[in-house]
Amino acid sequence: MKEQKRIILISLITGIVLMLAKFGAYFLTASNFVLTDAAESIVNVIASAFAFFSIYLSSQPRDENHPYGHGKVEFFSVFIEGSLIGIAGVIIIVKSVYSLLYPNEIHDLLTGAAIIGATGLVNGALGYYMIQKGKTLRSITLDADGRHLIADMVTSIGLVAGLLLIRFTGILWLDSGLSILVALYIIYSSYKLIRKSVAGLMDEADFQVVTDIINVLSEKRRESWIDVHNLRAQKYGNELHIDCHMTLPNYFDLNKAHAEVSLVDKLINKEVGIKTELFIHSDPCVPDCCHYCSMPNCPIRSEPQTETIAWTMDKVVRNKKHFE
């Protein structure tokens, strides 16, 4: 969590500096096109501030009111960020439509383009760094903030090109027209962030996480692990919570069954790369399991093994043993 806080703090300080630079470019040029970037920079600062708070809160230990911890606040942070971006996009469209009807003089476009280009390069480098760190640290907040900065870089590139086009063609209505196009892109970015946050808040299945878990269990599968079913995964901040059923030989005593479950716990935490809390329900095997059970020297086998059932998404997430 300390590293996440440090990265977000860097993003916040950088955002404030770049925001001042962009508004300086706006007051210098009086361009609505430049204003689109300046307005979005306000969102960057607010979003980074809220992200910093959300990471702080998500790092707090679980308590009676939050038995699974506070990690869900990261999804709320992404929702706030996406909403703010969308609001900024709508405001830009309104302002640009007004300027189309009542145009104003713009000037010093080359200087403005140079300032916006420099801020875009800084945002792009920082955004790429945050996305990589978000993947490494499994932080949706860092990833969302990084993608927002990459979107800001793309906006800045388009803005520089537009300013140069206006400067050399003298077509003033392009200032507002291009601002509207950029605002539509900003609103689309807003939609994607909100969609991602709602998916997390609603505990939508993360198929990539479940696939990674299934792959690990399949590669390290033991003969006593007859089947795994009813597997579900929930992400809370940088922690993962998994519950599933595992079928074990019914002649295992409690100590032996506990040892197998503990082995799965250690395996997932080691191989998946994210702190994981597992709740595994041990199911006893039944005679119908024998045809796909590879347990050697089984004293209760009713028929020989005739097939090996691969663990796939379809089989593992169903609340049924593999013969059902």
What is the compact description of this entry?
The chain is mainly α and 324 residues long.
Characterization of the model:
Helix content is 64%, strand content 9%. The protein has a 3-stranded mixed beta sheet with strand order 1-2-3. It has 2 domains: 2-201, Cation efflux protein transmembrane domain (Alpha-lytic protease prodomain-like); 207-317, Cation efflux protein, cytoplasmic domain (Alpha-Beta Plaits, 2-Layer Sandwich), CATH 3.30.70.1350. The protein is built from 9 helices and 3 strands. The radius of gyration is 27 Å and the shape is elongated.
Uncertain parts: none
| Alpha carbon gyration radius | 27 Å
- Secondary-structure arrangement, i.e. CATH architecture of the largest domain: Up-down Bundle
Structural class: mainly alpha
The helix/strand order is: HHHHHHHEEHEH
- CATH fold title of the largest domain: Alpha-lytic protease prodomain-like
Assembly state of the chains shown:
single chain
Strand order of the largest sheet: 1-2-3
- With helices defined by DSSP (H or I, 4 residues minimum), what is the helix count? 9
Per DSSP E runs of 2 or more residues, the count of β-strands stands at: 3
CATH-assigned homologous superfamily of the largest domain: Cation efflux protein transmembrane domain
Report how far apart the termini are. 44 Å
The CATH class designation of the largest domain is Mainly Alpha
Largest sheet: 3 strands, mixed
Helix content: 55-70%
Number of domains: 2
Average pLDDT over all residues: 82
The general outline is: elongated
